[in-house]
Amino acid sequence: RSEKDAKGDNKCVEEYDRYKGVEELMPYAKAVSAKSFDFGELGFETTIDYPKMIDIVQKANYRGFIGVEYEGTVLSEEEGIKATKVLIENCIKELSAKSE
Fold first, then answer.
1. I want to staple 2 with a disulfide (CB 3.0 to 4.6 A). Which of 10, 26, 51, 76 is the partner?
2. How many domains would you assign to the chain?
């Protein structure tokens, strides 16, 4: 939901649950994009629960590529993309180990 601010621009006042949204849209997904902004000391993205998100994607039986975007400011674009790729690979390995 959005409202107009004093300048007349739309301002988000209520954010939709991103995990619920991805779960609802995965049956129709032709592509998946993984965006990251920042990483904590353990290598996890600080704003998105990647293990939860990758679990949603896997449960939808998505078998395509996952594109990677980095929009943070701490790492270089290349380092951010590599860190996101490593995080995704680790999430997939961890989820695979749990399902065995």
1. 10
2. 1
